[in-house]
Amino acid sequence: YEGGASNSLGPVSFVYSILGEEPTPTPTPTPGSTEFVTGINIEGVTAWNDADEWYGMAITVGDSDIIVEELGRWVLEGNSGTHTMKILDPLTEEDLPNASVQVDTAGAPAGEFKYAALSTPITLSANTSYYIVSEEIKDGDYWYGGGTTVTHTADAIITSAAKTYNGRWETWGSLGSCIVPVSFKYSVSSAEPTPEVTPTVAPTPTVAPTPTVAPTPIPGTWAPPIGIPDPRDAQYFGGFDPIEGTHDMYEGMTFDYGDGPEPYRDAGNGPYTHYIDINHENATDTNNPYGTPDKPRKTIPKSELLPGMVLEIHSGDYPNITFKGDGTPAAPIFIRGVDAPHINRIDLSQVNTQSYMILEELQIGAMALNGPSHHIVVRNCEFPPDPSEKGIDISAFDEGKPVHHIVVYNTEIHLNEDAWDEPGNDVDHGGIIIGSKTNLDTSAYNMWLLDNTIYHCAGSAINMGQIGNTQDDIHHIYVGRNHCYENRQSSIGIKTSSDVIVSQNILHGHKTSTLQNANWGAGIVFQYAPDNVWALYNEIYDSEAGIKVPSNSADFPNSRMYMVGNVIYDIEPLSPVDDFSNAHNPAAIMSWGGKQVYIVNNSIHDINAGGIYSPNDINFHRIKQISNNIISNINDGYSIYIKSNFNLFDVFDYD
Predict the structure, then answer these.
(1) Fewer C-beta neighbours within 10 Å, C or N terminus of the chain?
(2) Percentage of the chain exceeding pLDDT 90
(3) In this predicted structure, which of 112-126, 164-178, 521-535 has the lowest mean pLDDT?
(4) Distances (CA, A) of 371 to 347, 605, 629
(5) Rounded to 5 degrees, what are φ and ψ at 133?
(6) How deeply is 54 buried, as exposed, middle or buried, from its count of CB atoms within 10 A (0-12, 13-18, 19+)?
């Protein structure tokens, strides 16, 4: 033998019992138990211990119930406290029964999760949202703050971080955001789903509705434009369909109008919680928080909107309104018009977070959609003429308040019918403008501008970014199948940004460049070095230029641009082209800027200017590929003009 007491080779063991007693069973782990969070990213994230609040994540369960067995909190170096963790319903803000544990971090290894078992496993229902949070104490253990992101399994998605602020629940961040962070262990239910118990709701006018089923996308024929991700995918809106999902999802559900839960009311236009008609003879706001067809509210409520609310607004002229309120994927907020009511101006609060809010069937004078708003849908609306205003201004200008997951769909914007092409100041009253303050911890991202009609604006139809932005300030913007025509500047202006797809748009009637700016009159303009931008299968005609890249920036090593499958024709400048080396000269495709440019499979014909021009390729290798383009009937200039000191065949593929 070797060694002494407690030494064993192998090692080996045995099962035993004390004579006269039953054997003690060996415990085994719960079959199928899985850790939800698989990795965390805390690069550049600050650790805090400055508040008495709850922090964690908001999740939406996938298509199968999951059974949660343990809750876990990430342990930072020096943590030693005990933290209450719990699961709650974001609709009612009530804790789930028996869904709370105490997680003791004393002695736990740093850099991993410490778990504690629930007294009874908790079933979380499929396609339903929950908050999973940890209580943090001021001057106690440190935790990782905003900016923390995690990866996780596919049985649920993290739609945002969840937290309290001065005791009020709110969400923060976007997909994968998780403060502290927190996690849980679970198994996927293989049995029939257990019906979820509906919490008792107090009879007050401000209580959120209690949905009994989760929304499912309504089948239809809509499909996204080529190359653009489908916003209906659950990873973007948590299972709610921003294109075709409707307020009819609340049929058969209940809402508390003040005397306890009752079925949603319906006056013939689908479920509603608030009935508003400014012109009705009996309309009043006095002792009338919700309104009915016989006694409508006179004004749109200014109080915070709760998940599941449906505002039915009837025709009439309504003053400026600032909306605030957080919906959820399972219970979005609908603000909807009947018979085209006109609201002078809509703002989304820059103080509170707005989320899962759908605005539809409205006439709107102007709209400011500011951070920290996210998961907002504007669809089937009209922005009628108002020469003093922009259409939709989407901005992330306050530090730590990004704006993201925005859909603008099937909306008509025509701001200035009479004077859209008159000379004057560069007012930039565009149709849809996306902006972000540079060098701040904020950004504008994940936006879909789809199937809109935008015309007669005293600016570009769609414009994003500005000089001074970084490429990360605005990113993942999708512009598809819009019809833009006769706007004072260009149809679509893409300034410093990244990961932008412009697909299957119809752009025409821009012939105003002599009024003020040589970049006007183009279908698409890429300016100030945007990166990874794609112009796919657009139709551009009856304009001064097709696609223009008039400038660069030395601040960014990459400015990749892909122009594929576009059809460009009937391009005619207002004056003849004398200098083909000028960055602002019109052409079907003018690539003076850009750092890695690919021009492939485009059809270009009937051009009274140049075909494909790159007058600034000297020493830069900007043009990487020109191939498979069909070019015909170029009446003034060259079909292809590249000014370079290099052998063309060494610089790019030329077919």
Answers:
(1) N
(2) 49
(3) 164-178
(4) 11, 43, 42
(5) -140, 160
(6) buried
Measured CA to CA, the distance from residue 108 to residue 78 in angstroms comes to: 10
Closest to 69 in 3D by CA, of 34, 39, 105: 34
Distance separating alpha carbons of residues 475 and 494, to the nearest angstrom: 11
> Hey, what are 16's tokens?
């035993």
Q: What region does 238 belong to: left with phi over 0, alpha with psi -120 to 50, or beta?
A: left
**Residue 452 above 90 pLDDT?**
yes
Contact between residue 242 and residue 377 where contact means Cβ atoms under 8 Å apart: yes
Peptide bond before residue 384 is cis, with ω within 30 degrees of 0: no
3-state secondary structure 273-320: CEEECCCCCCCCCCCCCCCCCCCCECCCCCCCECCCCEEEEECCEECC
Tokens found for residue 462: 């769609």
Residue 253 three-state SS: coil
d(CA 13, CA 293): 78
Q: Give the count of alpha carbons within 13 A of 451, CB side only.
A: 13
- Side-chain half-sphere exposure of 591, counting CA atoms within 13 A: 30
342-343 and 596-600 as β-strands: parallel, antiparallel, unpaired?
Answer: unpaired
pLDDT band for 417, please (50, 70, 90 cuts).
low
| pLDDT over 60 (residue 197) | no
Residue 54 pLDDT: 93
Strands 156-165 and 53-61: antiparallel
Token pair for 201: 């709701």
Inform me whether the pLDDT recorded for 575 exceeds 90. Answer: no
Q: Which of 380-384, 426-430, 528-532 has the lowest mean pLDDT?
A: 426-430
SS3 for 470-500 is CCCCEEEEEEECCEEECCCCCCEEECCCEEE
Separation of alpha carbons 508 and 496, rounded Å: 24
**pLDDT tens digits along 280-320:** 999 999 999 999 999 999 999 988 899 999 999 999 999 99
Structure confidence at residue 512 as a pLDDT band (50, 70, 90): low
Q: Are 366 and 230 in contact (CB under 8 A)?
A: no
Task: Give 3-69 as a DSSP string.
Answer: S-TT--SS--------TTSPPPPPP-PPTT-EESEEEEE-TTPPEE----EEEEEEEEE-SS-EEEE
